[in-house]
Structures are given as structure tokens and as C-alpha cells.
């Protein structure tokens, strides 16, 4: 399919690796087949897609934006496979930037925090939403368009000297560390 796009005279300037799946569970209950499916989709999919597009991006000095997660920077409850896969994507981003920089290809990563998506709305109970709001300095979930704006910036000429970086788009969630919610309520 990638060859077909290029044959039609289309250019490939930007690759956004955004595929991802999750399975929540405790370390002792995660089934290996689920672990493997998450790694195959989140990490190996990112690697293989990039590998197949490099020859086209070399011609355009294009950009790669990998989408990880704040769970790749900060351990989260019940996210052993998901968090590990997203941490690996952050490292993969740095490796790709080192190898592809000589061809003028920039590679960066965006790590969203809690974002108001249909999936989040379906699985986050009111208690989970409240807990996140209490842990995020901006006191709200991010919006999908805010993640898109970060991706747009990193793929634009305004970011022409940025490569190998991870941008957390999380309302300050990563910076907040261990929150003391009870102090905020006093």
C-alpha cells in the first residue's frame, strides 16, 4: 500500500505512528497472549511502519511522530503491558532520531496524558475522572485537538531543530508526581 501511494505521485512527508491498544490487569494475571498483542501493536507496529516508510521520507526529509503515553513515563495502576510498550516507544523515538537525523528526518514523540476520548468516557468511572482531575494541575482531561496541535507543531518548520524529543501533553500530570489530594481539599 505504501508503494501504491508513492506510485500515484503522492509524497510522504509525515508519518504519525498512533496505533495503540491496552489491556488492564495486575502483573500476575496478564496473559502472555495479551502482553504479546499489545507489544505487537504498540511497539512492533511502530517499528515496522517506520521501517517501511524510511526510503520515502529520505526523499522529502520528512518527519516521524510517534505517539506514546504518559504511562510510558510514569507507572500506572494495572498498566504493566501498556506502560512498558509506551516506554519502549519513547526509547525507540530516540534511537530513530539518532539513526535518521543524517538524512534530514526528524523523529519526535508525543505522550498524551488523560484525554477525553470516546474510549476514556466509556471506561473511566466518575471516581476515576475525579482522581485524574485531582492529579492534573490543569484539573481537566485533555482534548483530542490538543494532542493533534502538538503533533502538528512537531511536524512543522517551527520545530525544524527539534528531534529525539518527547513532548508530554498532559496538563502537568507528569510533573505533579505523587499528589497529596487531601492537602488540596484543606
Describe this entry's structure for a reader.
There is one protein chain. The longest helix has 29 residues, at 32-60. This protein has helices spanning 2-7, 32-60, 80-100, 118-123, 126-135, 144-154, 173-176, 181-184, and strands at residues 14-17, 63-67, 106-112, 166-169. It has 186 residues and is α/β, with parallel strands linked by helices. Helix 2 runs parallel beside helix 3 (80-100). The model has no long low-confidence stretch (mean pLDDT 90). The protein contains eight helices and four strands, in the order H-E-H-E-H-E-H-H-H-E-H-H. It is globular and about 50 Å long. Strands 1-2-3-4 form a four-stranded parallel β-sheet, with helices on both faces. The chain has one domain (2-113, 145-175): Rossmann fold (3-Layer(aba) Sandwich), CATH 3.40.50.
Task: Give me the secondary-structure topology.
Elements: H1 2-7, E1 14-17, H2 32-60, E2 63-67, H3 80-100, E3 106-112, H4 118-123, H5 126-135, H6 144-154, E4 166-169, H7 173-176, H8 181-184
Poorly predicted sequence stretches spanning 5 or more consecutive residues: none
What's the CATH C level?
Alpha Beta
| Structural class determined from secondary elements | alpha/beta
**The biggest beta sheet, please?**
4 strands, parallel
Ends apart, CA distance between termini: 58 Å
According to CATH, the homologous superfamily is NAD(P)-binding Rossmann-like Domain
> How many β-strand stretches?
4
Mean pLDDT, nearest integer? 90
Strand order of the largest sheet: 1-2-3-4
Radius of gyration, CA atoms, in whole angstroms: 18 Å
Helix content: 40-55%
The number of helical segments is: 8
Give the amount of beta strand, in percent. 5-15%
What is the molecular shape? globular
CATH level 3 topology: Rossmann fold
Reading the helices and strands in chain order gives: HEHEHEHHHEHH
Amino acid at each position: 500500500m505504501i508503494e501504491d501511494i508513492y506510485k500515484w505521485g503522492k509524497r510522504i512527508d509525515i508519518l504519525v505512528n498512533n496505533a495503540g491498544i491496552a489491556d488492564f490487569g495486575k502483573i500476575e494475571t496478564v496473559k502472555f497472549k495479551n502482553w504479546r498483542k499489545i507489544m505487537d501493536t504498540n511497539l512492533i507496529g511502530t517499528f515496522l511502519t517506520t521501517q517501511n516508510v524510511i526510503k520515502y521520507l529520505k526523499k522529502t526529509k520528512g518527519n516521524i511522530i510517534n505517539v506514546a503515553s504518559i504511562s510510558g513515563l510514569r507507572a500506572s495502576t494495572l498498566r504493566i503491558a501498556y506502560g512498558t510498550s509506551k516506554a519502549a516507544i519513547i526509547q525507540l523515538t530516540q534511537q530513530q532520531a539518532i539513526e535518521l537525523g543524517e538524512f534530514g528526518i526528524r523523529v519526535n514523540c508525543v505522550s498524551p496524558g488523560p484525554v477525553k476520548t470516546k474510549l476514556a468516557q466509556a471506561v473511566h468511572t466518575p471516581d476515576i475522572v475525579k482522581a485524574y482531575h485531582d492529579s492534573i494541575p490543569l484539573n481537566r482531561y485533555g482534548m483530542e485537538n490538543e494532542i493533534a496541535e502538538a503533533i502538528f507543531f512537531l511536524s512543522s518548520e517551527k520545530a525544524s531543530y527539534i528531534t529525539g524529543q518527547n513532548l508530554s501533553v498532559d496538563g502537568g500530570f507528569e510533573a505533579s508526581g505523587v499528589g497529596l489530594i487531601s492537602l488540596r481539599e484543606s
